[in-house]
# Entry
Amino acid sequence: MNLVLDIAWTHVRTRVRQTGFAVAGVATGVGFSIMMAALMQGSQDDFTNRLVNTLPHITVSDERRVPPKQLAETMFEAAQFYGLAPEARRRGIKNPLATMAALEAWLPGNVAPSVKVQGIIRYANRDVGASVIGIDPAREAAVSELAKQMRGAPLAALFRATNAIVLGDRLAEKIGARIGANITVQTSEGARINAQVVGFFRSGLRQMDEGTAYVLAKTGQILAQQTGLINELRVRLKDPMASREIAQRIEGDTGYKSVSWQEAHEDLLSTFLIRNLIMYTVVGAILLVASFGTYNIISTITHEKARDIAILKSLGLREETVRTIFVVEALIIGAAGAAAGFVLGYLLCIALGAIEIRNPFVDMTRLPLTYAYWHYLVAGLAALFSSVAAGYLPARKAARLHPVDIIRGAT
Amino acid sequence: MIANAQPQERIATAAEAPLIEARNVTRILPGIVPTTLVRNISLRIGGNEFIAITGPSGSGKSSLLYLLGLLDLPTSGEVLIRGRATHAMTEDERAHVRLSTLGFVFQFHFLLPEFSIVDNVMLPMRALGGRPEEDMRERAKVLLSSLGLADHLDKRPDQLSGGQRQRVAVARALANEPAVILADEPTGSLDSKSSEQVFDLLRHIVEDQGKTVVAVTHHLGFAERTDRRIELIDGTIVADRQIAKRA
# Structure
């Protein structure tokens, strides 16, 4: 074995208890870092999955980002007009079938048409505001998980009755409607129909389950009081993470406001950023504290071994060699700590995964955890790096030690 | 023929130059009251000499030895090893000279406590490198056996007596076949019987292996039996006597 490794290993090996504590310090840091990363990443992934699975990845609506200008404003740019209301246009996406065909030609995914109307659902003297979405059940399967989220009846139940309606389960609970109940839907356009509840859905997102109802597109058009109206295209992509870029392109192509799921939930996603920032700060602090332990042990060893260092140097070992010995010792502690930390982290994840939790906002019974190799990689590298940094300072001091000072002191 | 001329010439000068030469060496310890350890000493040490440096406590004998062994740097003057100036060398170059040409024995054995004595003797060889580990182990065993430690090869230093440890230290000093052994009170912490053994060992190194031994000692019985005695008082050489070569 290499001389440096041999001496370093001997120093570490003959101080089982001291090095044990240093290793335990690093291992705790690494283990808890891994656990925290798994938990943070897990809840984030879980939430993202829920969003991605429940909602269309991109919603193309008949709105524009900026209200269209009046003709006069575009004709006479220099003049200023007062009291002009933005130009009113007929609602809906123009020529929806052709637009969809154009999008489907290049989109890596599927497009489905829908009619979205704001309405009030009334049953047994209770009023609840809701988005009523008219869909084509056959095409809906290609753009959302709605068919899988159905409770009580399949999505095709929408064809069972005239004006059939599917309610979010929390919405149904709120108004006390069961399957077969006849409810009233009234919209801002003044339409008012009686609809029969044929099923429920449960997406897991409270906001959806509390405030959304599905009907057939035809019923939706009646509610919107406009025949043939399609005011929303729902897009599902093969790669949900590409939504932002594709939404931009759709908007550029069609001029309609296209909102990716990321944009729709920007506030939530930005809290992830803050969460991650907090996590990395805490993890960094844990590893820093662990590295103090390493610093301590290497310092102690160099003090105890001052005589050995003196003799090694007097024999003719180079400063660099002596320094390397102690850095290697720190590295051994760091590596052992990282390895033990991997095991600890994995066990902690398993233990956490076994805990059942009830959350009033999102339904889950177990903590979502993500097992990712890079959590281990990052925590391990950080442990190694901090150990080497912690070992380097006392190692440098030890290597600079003047042999004569020690030998004279001993004599 | 001509191609050979230059290396031969170089060997010739190396042989002519003294092994260690001190030129007007002074060492002052800095401090509020600077202490002069060694004052303007000039000294030539050749091959195959057995030298004792003697003097009262605080006369600077150990300091002189450290300067000759490149463990310490003179405040002024210079130390040459085989004609090579050392004051301009880097710390690493000096370390290499120590490793390859000088061997040290101190009053305390300074063996690494966690290693067996064979490993301790192998240490300088491994630091120098250049040959397989097995050869080093073999040489360490031969060295230790020749010093009467054949039965203790795998013991650790704390399992040996003081005299045995000091012999291990001598074996370690000899590991890299140095030209000079510098010994700082090698018998200072030993009883008379062990002292005698270590002295005989050092004499043997001079007489049978042709090496030079420079030993700092305050032990008169030791100093009287060496070939050359250098006496120091207050950091200055007051006597440098060559005793008639033994028969």
The radius of gyration of chain B is 18 Å.
